[in-house]
Amino acid sequence: MPDHTPDHGPEPRAVEALRRWETAGGVWRVVARGPSTVTVALCRCDGGEEVDRLSSSAPGLIAYIGERASSED
Asked: Which of 26, 40, 39 is nearest to 72 (CA)?
């Protein structure tokens, strides 16, 4: 049976991925922003090398990022 608890699904997972990245010391940067989608580069904490990207149209992720350009804002 599928899990329908509020902490599961693509939206909470995308926000949690960014939070985990920040907690681990990594930096994220917005590389593209559209009216309904955001693409974020996940960068290392020791020089900023991009190691992965996350693209999502999840409203919760878009709200979490807001107008920030990076996790350093």
From this structure: 26
CA distance 21 to 17: 6
Tokens in use for 20?
């985990």
The per-residue pLDDT of the chain, averaged, comes to 84
Is the model's pLDDT at 35 over the cut of 60?
Answer: yes
- Buried-exposed string 60-69: b where 16+ CB fall within 10 A, e elsewhere: bbbebbeeee
SS3 for 46?
A: coil
- The answer to whether the CB of 38 falls within 8 A of the CB of 32 is yes
